[in-house]
Structure formats: C-alpha cells, structure tokens
Write a structure and sequence with these properties.
By secondary structure, the protein is of the alpha+beta class. The protein is 18% helix and 23% strand. The chain has two domains: 62-256, no CATH class; 263-376, no CATH class. Strand 12 and strand 13 (190-197) form a beta hairpin. Helix 6 packs across helix 8.
C-alpha cells in the first residue's frame, strides 16, 4: 500500500506542476490509485473522480478527451478520461490504438441529461458543454455507469461500475446490469428503454480487435478519433498536441492537426457525406468488421481506409441467409437504401437481426438516417458489378 500511495502522490505532484489540476478537486483529495491486482469493489477506490459541490469532478492528472465521431450507446452521453503515472507516455501510431504504458487508466462515464421541470425521463440529445463538459452537474444529469480499462503488467482488464441511486459512488458489476429508463426525443416522443451495462466477457467481444492474437485493446484512442480540438481549463487546443505537451503522448508528428489522420464528425453537415458515413461505420462497426476482427469471415470491412468495393458491402451478397438479411440481396445496394441489408440491420433492435449486436437496445434514428442518405446518394445499380 505504501508503494501505491507514493506512486499516486508523485503523480499528483507532477500533474499539479504541469497545470493539470482539473474539475475543482482540492489538494485534500486522495491521489489517483493504480491498483495492480484484484477488482476494487467501488469506483472511488481508484480516486479518478469524486462527487462534491453537486458535481462529478475529476482528480488531478485525469485528463478528459472526446472523439470526432463517438460510438452510439442508446443515446447516452460519455465523459472520457485518461490518466497515466509519472514518467511514462503512450506511443503515437498513425493507424492503430496508441501503445499505452502499464499504469494507464482509461475511463468512460455514461450519463443522460435529465428532463427539465422535474420529469423522470432522460434526453436523447444534449450539448454536454452546458455542464462544463468535464464537470457534470448532478442536478442536470443522471450517471449510469463508468467503465474502466486498466493497463496492468499482463495486459488490459475491463471493469464496469454502476452508479448508485444517490449518485455518490459506483459499484463493480462484473456480471453486468440492466437499468430501465425513459428516453425523451427531440420530437417529444417517449421511448421506454432497458439500458444494459455489459459484463466483462461482452467487453472483450468488442475490445479484442484481432481474433488471432486475442489482444485486448481500447477502441477510441486512435489518432483519427482524437485529432480535434478540446477545451481544457478554458483553453481550446488540439487534443493530440495537448497530450504530447503534458507528457502523455510521444512520437507525435509536427503539426498534428494537419499531419495526423482525422475522421469526420458525423453530425457536421458541412463535411462530405461519404466521410461522415464512413466515420460512423468506423467507430460503431469496425472493431469487429475488419480483416482481423471477430467478423472477418463475413469479408465486410468497415474500418476507415478500407477500399470502397465489395468488402465495404457494395453489391455484396450475404455470407449466410436468414433473418439478418431481411430478404435483401446485398449489404449495400447503391442508390437503394431500403433494399440494403446494412440499413435493415441498423434499423432493427431485434436480437439476431440488429447490428451492432452489443452496446445498444434501441435504434439510432439519426445514425440510420445518415447511412440511408449515404447509400441513396450512390450511383444506382448492381448489375454491372
């Protein structure tokens, strides 16, 4: 314990010296704990974040970040953070997940904004900047879960923590959890939903991107997802450059905003439709649908940079017939979204039909609309292919 305390104290001092004291935590807050063994029963055991002053505040050195296009999880918002111990850095990679050192803790807190006026529903869409982004006001949001990815000496482990009703702490739920909520959409329609917290085995189903190596990896921390601006302590700057400046990332190219790859923001209609749709498929589907992933036998490759041909689904017959095809002949039928298997599966919440298979229990209406628009804009026809 003394060694852990000393390591955390050093990290706290380093972070404070670098100007990383975030979220209003005071110096009396215990330092972040990198726990090398076992499965701590409470999120507070790690000291990454704490509830005080009516807000969820991040500890010193716990750095928030965001993605250009995020994964859809039943309309939940996400506060993402990263922490590293003193003297180590992640190594930049232009294509793959960065190589993170032992001691890294990546967190993702899922939350919903609350319905105004005392209603019990949660909102489907929301601007997280209203809460200060990395300091969530608990009278405005409902915390659902916080998932940790912890890089120990023998590899990554996943630990899901479910927030209690009092919103004071989260408890380890290795077998998962189901939480009923009512979602209020922009059109004022209300949708009952069972929010599902995955068990640790389900976490591996998405985070093992290479089925041969069985190597567990984070999904979001890649250059193309992180190459965007983010406001830390009131100052907006490129996230990659910021991580390098505070010592969390090395090997970054000069002028990363221009030199590093960048995915589109799927919601930004000023960006090309093809770039937005490919970014959406990349983050939501490509952890399985790539040439090394769990769905590689389908030969459907949805990762960014995969060629726009049969492997993307263009005029591609299904590998196997069944409910998942909806009676359609091609993964993507150019110009005909309603005859495309991809749209059919994205537009379903039925087990055995919907894609992705995990991580959602509802249909992402806006995401389906984007993919539908993308396919409709393609030159029509499959006869010549």
């Amino acid at each position: 314990m003394r060694g852990l305390w000393k390591q955390g104290a050093i990290a706290l001092a380093m972070a404070a010296a670098a100007g990383l004291t975030l979220g209003g935590c005071t110096r009396s807050e215990p330092a972040v704990s990198f726990i090398t063994e076992g499965n701590p029963p409470k999120l507070s055991d790690w000291h990454l974040m704490a509830v005080n002053g009516g807000r969820l505040n991040l500890n010193a050195g716990v750095v928030p970040y965001d993605l250009n296009t995020p994964l859809f999880t039943d309309y939940a918002q996400k506060l993402r953070t990263i922490w590293m111990p003193q003297g180590v850095s992640a190594t930049y990679d232009a294509e793959n997940t960065f190589n993170f050192p032992v001691g890294t803790i990546i967190s993702k807190t899922f939350y919903y904004p609350r319905e105004s006026g005392g209603g019990k529903a949660v909102l489907a869409t929301y601007d997280s900047s209203r809460n200060g982004g990395d300091r969530l006001a608990l009278d405005q949001v409902r915390l659902m879960e916080t998932r940790l990815l912890v890089r120990r000496a023998d590899g990554w482990i996943a630990l899901p923590y479910v927030w209690n009703a009092e919103q004071t702490d989260a408890v380890l739920a290795r077998t998962g959890e189901q939480i009923p909520v009512e979602v209020l959409h922009d059109d004022q329609s209300r949708q009952p939903l069972t929010y599902v917290v995955p068990n640790v085995n389900q976490c591996a189903a998405c985070h093992v991107a290479d089925i041969k190596s069985r190597q567990f990896q984070p999904i979001g921390p890649k250059a193309r997802h992180l190459n965007r601006d983010y406001t830390h302590e009131g100052v907006s700057s490129n996230q990659l450059a910021y991580l390098a400046r505070i010592g969390y990332l090395r090997g970054l190219p000069d002028d990363p905003a221009r030199a590093a790859p960048r995915n589109a923001n799927w919601r930004d209609s000023s960006q090309p439709l093809d770039a937005r749709a490919r970014a959406y498929l990349d983050i939501n589907c490509a952890h399985c649908h790539n040439d090394k992933g769990a769905a590689n036998t389908t030969a459907l490759h949805l990762n960014m940079g995969a060629p726009a041909n049969l492997h993307l689904g263009l005029c591609k017959p299904p590998v196997a017939a069944g409910a998942g095809t909806g009676g359609h002949s091609f993964g993507i039928y150019p110009g005909k979204p309603d005859e495309s298997i991809m749209v059919y599966r994205l537009n379903s919440a039925e087990t055995g039909v919907m894609m992705p298979e995990l991580g959602r229990g509802s249909v992402h209406r806006e995401g389906v609309a984007l993919i539908r628009e993308w396919i409709a804009a393609m030159k029509q026809g499959c006869d010549q292919r």
